[in-house]
Write a structure and sequence with these properties.
alpha+beta, about 325 residues, 13 strands, globular, four-stranded antiparallel sheet, about 30% helix
C-alpha cells in the first residue's frame, strides 16, 4: 500500500453555543487521532469554517500526505460540507471518505432520491413543499430537512396525515429550499454500515432500530431527540440491536445487495451508512445514504465494526486502503 507519513485530520470548527450533534465532532477527532497514532502516522489537526482561504493556508503549511476528512458541516450548515473535499481536490491532496461528488449528491436528499429511482433503488415517494396537492389523503408524510444529516431540525412535529395537510400550519413557515415531503413508511428500520478497502466495499452486520413504549399514534422515527437529546422520551426508548442474519437470510441478502447498489450508483468510497425502512409487506425503501456518518463509540458505524470484530484502527486502515485504491 502507498505509504503516507503525515495525516491531517480536518474537521468542522465548532460554533459558539454548539449543541450535542455538533460537539460530537470533537470525540470523533480524538478517536481518529488516537487510532492514527496507533497505526504509526504523524498527525496534525485543522479546522474549517467559511473562510476556505484559511483552510488552504493551513494545508499548504502543514503539507500532509493524506487528509482524514471529518468535515460534517461548515458553520453548522451540512449543505456546505463538500466545500472542504472540493478544496482537497483542487490542491491534489488525497483524502479518506466519500469523494466530493458523492458527498454533494447524497447530502441533497431529493437529488439522491432521483438518482435512486433512476437506478432502480427503492425509495419512498417524495414531494416538494409546493406539491401538497399531490399527496394521498390516506397516507402519512414527513417534512424533512433536504440538506442536513444528524436529523437536525427533524422530529415528530413534522409528521402529518395527507388528509390534514391544510391544517398543518407549520409547513407554511418552512423554506422549500431546505425542506421537502417524504412518505412515511410504517415498519422496521435498519441503519446499515458499509466499509471500503482494497478489495472493495463490505456490508457490515445488520442492525435494527427498536422503538420501545411508543404510544399508539406516535411516529416511530429517528428524529433529533432520539439521536441527541439525552433524557428525552425518544432517546430513552430507542435502541439498536443486531439481527440474527441466518434467521432472516432472504431479507438480509436483499438489504446488502441494495447497499452495494447504492455504493456503486453514487460511486462511494471510504465508509457510509444506508438507512432503510421495511414496510408491512416486507418491501425495502432506502431513506437516505449518509456519506459521512458519525464514528464515535456507540454510533451505528462504530457498533457495526465492533460486531464484526474489527478494531477501529483496522477500520481506518481499510478507509486508507480505499483512498489508495482510487489513486491507482
Amino acid at each position: 500500500m502507498r505509504k503516507f507519513e503525515k495525516v491531517a485530520i480536518v474537521y468542522n470548527e465548532v460554533q459558539q453555543n454548539a449543541g450535542p450533534d455538533e460537539l460530537d465532532i470533537l470525540d470523533q477527532v480524538e478517536l481518529a487521532e488516537n487510532s492514527l497514532h496507533e497505526l504509526g502516522y504523524n498527525t496534525c489537526k485543522i479546522t474549517v469554517n467559511l473562510d476556505l482561504s484559511q483552510l488552504k493556508k493551513s494545508l499548504l503549511e502543514e503539507k500532509p500526505d493524506l487528509i482524514f476528512n471529518l468535515v460534517e458541516s461548515i458553520n453548522n450548515h451540512g449543505e456546505l460540507l463538500y466545500f472542504a473535499p472540493a478544496l482537497y481536490n483542487n490542491l491534489k491532496i488525497p483524502y479518506t471518505g466519500v469523494n466530493t461528488e458523492g458527498l454533494f449528491i447524497t447530502t441533497n436528499k431529493p437529488l439522491a432520491k432521483h438518482w435512486m429511482r433512476s437506478n432502480n433503488i427503492p425509495t419512498a415517494d417524495w414531494f416538494e413543499l409546493y406539491e401538497t396537492d399531490k399527496l394521498d389523503k390516506n397516507k402519512t408524510y414527513l417534512v424533512k430537512p433536504k440538506l442536513e444529516d444528524g436529523s437536525l431540525g427533524f422530529d415528530d412535529d413534522l409528521v402529518f396525515k395527507g388528509a390534514d395537510v391544510h391544517k398543518f400550519e407549520k409547513i407554511k413557515t418552512l423554506s422549500p429550499f431546505h425542506f421537502f415531503i417524504e412518505e412515511y413508511i410504517e415498519g422496521r428500520e435498519f441503519n446499515i454500515s458499509v466499509l471500503g478497502g482494497d478489495k472493495g466495499p463490505e456490508v457490515l452486520p445488520v442492525p435494527e432500530m427498536n422503538f420501545h413504549n411508543y404510544p399508539e399514534g406516535k411516529p416511530k422515527i429517528m428524529g433529533f431527540r432520539a439521536k441527541w437529546e439525552e433524557n428525552s422520551f425518544e432517546y430513552d426508548n430507542t435502541s439498536r440491536s443486531f439481527i440474527d442474519e441466518e434467521a432472516e437470510k432472504e431479507l438480509v441478502n436483499l438489504l446488502k445487495k441494495i447497499c452495494i447498489d447504492c455504493w456503486n450508483t453514487f460511486q462511494l468510497t471510504g465508509f457510509v451508512r444506508v438507512d432503510f425502512r421495511i414496510d408491512k409487506e416486507g418491501n425495502p425503501f432506502v431513506l437516505e445514504v449518509n456519506a459521512n456518518p458519525c464514528i464515535t463509540p456507540g454510533s451505528g458505524f462504530y457498533s457495526a465494526c465492533e460486531k464484526k470484530g474489527y478494531s477501529f484502527s483496522y477500520a481506518i486502515t481499510r478507509m486508507i486502503e480505499d483512498t489508495v485504491r482510487h489513486l491507482n
